[in-house]
Every structure is written in structure tokens, then in C-alpha cells.
Amino acid sequence: MTTPQEELLPGTRRALLHRIAVAQAEGRAPSLVATVVRGGEPVWTGARTSVEGHGPDQNVQYRIGSITKTFTAVLVLRLRDEGLLDLADPLEKHLPGTGVGEATIAGLLAHTAGLAAETPGPWWERSPGSLRPELADVLGERPVLHPAGRRFHYSNPGYALLGALVEKLRGAPWEEVLRREVLEPLGLERTSARPQAPHAGGWAVHPWADVMLPEPAEDLGRMAPAGQLWSTTGDLARFAAFLVEGDERVLSAGSLREMRTPAAPAEAADVAGGYAYCLGMEIRHQGGRTLVGHTGSLPGFLACLMISEADDVAAVVLANCTSGPPLFTVAADLVRIVAEAEPRIPRPWRPLRDVDPSVLELAGQWYWGTYAFALRLTADGLVSLEPLSGNGRRSRFRSNGDGTWTGLEGYYAGETLSAVRRPDGSLSHLDLGSFVFTRQPYDEGAPVPGGVDPEGWRGVG
Length: 461
Fold this sequence. Notes:
- Helix content is 27%, strand content 22%.
- The protein is α+β, with helices and mostly antiparallel strands.
- An eight-stranded antiparallel beta sheet has the order 12-13-14-15-16-17-18-19, with no helix packed on it.
- Helix 1 (10-27) packs antiparallel against helix 12 (327-341), helix 2 (67-81) packs parallel to helix 6 (156-170) and helix 2 (67-81) packs across helix 7.
- The longest helix has 18 residues, at 10-27.
- The radius of gyration is 26 Å and the shape is globular.
- Residues 1-5 have low confidence and may be disordered.
């Protein structure tokens, strides 16, 4: 159920406005605009500006920098879902001659292909794309710095390669493919490769004086798939809803869930900071909350889109300055303000429509060795296995229709859960990837690996 903007409580709206006002003032941003999404719909938009009598709204374009990468990743996942490529394919299979060694498509999406972070000089974000007309100009003489798959190393040229891959397999320019396959179906009419009025101008604010300098707005050419796009908080609010819910005309909810799943080995500092990279999306942890989305920057602009799936709240924040307000922190705070002031109201509990008695028989307490677990049947038709102590391996399982289930997450993702019965049809035990779960700890009536001492449980003699 969508929630109209006016239903946000006055106190919540004021807290949101206060947060962006502080960000604009302390960050010395010429302007800053933000939108909050709840239930898949925009519920609040606010703006602050240094220009008297003028305030940007959700229809004013700003450059969004690396949020562009998420759009490019959607195009690549579409190709995968159509069977035109596999994420494990080496790029060379589809785009030969790039000289990037063992780089796979998944590695490029997750920044694990070992490529350099930037192009050879001059600074690509502040110089015309015409200086780098070919992929060789983007990659340089030494494009690979690290062994493929070994570490997360953010690479802007990697997304230039993914854009070239899209162009090769679609036979059309990246910008045209993006408009036809993503922007138009989702109704993102104010997202474009070049600015369209009304749009903000990009500024650099002097670090030690309250004065500004205009930044150039270059066409990035081959680097466009890494950071070219201009958009609005209104369009990015719709994009945020799509990134969770999916749209069968563009990309399924399942493929988007895959995009939101960590795919890169994290550096030690990233582990400590609660950061992980997925397939064209970032995961960050802030104040006990998991947020997924992407940040972006180009000279003159900062951008952030963050989603809390658990709270069903997203925030988009855009500013027209090279540096200044910490937009991720601002977006995280906007999500927190709404989630804490007006927590998500859960859907009503509803029972299963019907249940197979042989499946219902599995519900209840089980033991793996001396560890106690509970198996539950849930209204969504899944089976969940959870440690009763609160700590330990847990997973949900999807039925395969043949009396077995497949794990969906955690340690048991992809593993098979089977109910093993005795010749007379009675339930013996559960088998989960060779682990035997029994109704009693080390049940002597079940085939516990290693056997059970025939003298049974005992105290100290």
C-alpha cells in the first residue's frame, strides 16, 4: 500500500528538512535536494539553496556520477537473462582484443577484475571524452594491476568495457540501449546522458573561503557507462523502487536480488567499515541498518541513492558541488529518521492456505549433534531452519517439488535438505548436505555418522 506524502507526520517532515538544511549549510553546497521513498512511492521532497527565491525540486537535473554504473549493470544482467552471455564468461569471448587478461564479466561488474582504478591521464572526469576515442585509450599500456578475482579494486575503466560489451551485443550505442531498455519502460523521462533544462550547474567551493568556481561539464565519451548520466531525485526515487521490486519489462526481482548480493572480497578496512560491493551496487552498514545502493561524484556534483529493504525506505540526495556534504551520511540519516519515527507497519499475518501433512510432520525441534534447531513452515511456502540459541547457521529453503528443499541463503545456500524415512514410512532424520538432524541429540535410532555410544548418556561416575 502506498503512502501519500501528506501522511508523514509533521515532526518527521521537520526532522528531514532540518537534516538537509544542516547538510547544505555545513557542507557549503550551492544547492541540495533530497527525496524519501516509502512503500515504493516518494513521500517527501526537500531542498536548500544559496540562491534567494529559488529552490530546486524533484524535477531539476543533477549529474549523478557513478550511480550510472548501476544502470549499466542492469543492462548487462538483461543480456545474461536473455542467454546472450554468462557472468562467468571472460570478456574476451564477447569483446576480443581488449588486453585485460582473465577478466570476467562478473569481475568487471564487481570490481574484482584487477583493472586500474582510472584511465591514463589527463583526469578523465575533467577532460573531453574525445581525448580517449578508443578502448585502448581508456585502458592504457598497463590496464591490469592485480590478479583477477583476488581483491576488490574499484575500476572506472572496467565499466567502460561493460558499456562497450553492451554496444557489441546490442549493435547500438550504450546511450540508445539504455534509453530503450531501461529509461523509457520505467518512465525515467528526466534521466539523460546530457543535461536537459532545468538542470543545476556544477560548482567547486573553495576549501578555505566562501567563494565558488564553475566546473566543466564534459561529455565522457567511452567512459560514459561509468559516470555520464544526469537525473533528478524524482527519477531516482522511481529507480530505487525498481531496484527492490523489479519490473518484468526491464529486470526481474530475482536478478535485482542478485545485483544486491555481495560479490567482491572486501579489504580488511572495508570489513571493519561494513562495506561490500555487489554487481553494480554497494552495501553499507550505518547505525545497525543495512543500506544498499550507490554513491556518485563528478567535478561539480555529488549524488547518493540508498535503500533499506528491511524498513522499506529509500533516500536520494543530490548536490552541485565537487566536495562538501557527506551525502551517504545524509541519505542514511533520512532513512533512519523515517524508519524510527514512523516504523514500517508489517503486513497482517495470514495462515497457509493448505499444507501437506508429510511436510507438517517436519516442523518442530531438531538436533545436529547437541545443537538445537527449530524447523518452521512459513506462510510464503518456504521452510526455515533456525538455531534455538539465536546464534548459528540459519537458512530458508524452497521446495523442489520432490520432497527435497534447496537452501536460499547463508551457509546452506544451494544445499539440499531431505527428509529421510524408514522402510515403514516413518520419519527417521533430516539430511542437510550430509549433516544428520535428529529429533533427539545423537538419537541412537538414526544413522548418526560415527555411531552413538551404546551405553547412552551418563553422568560423572
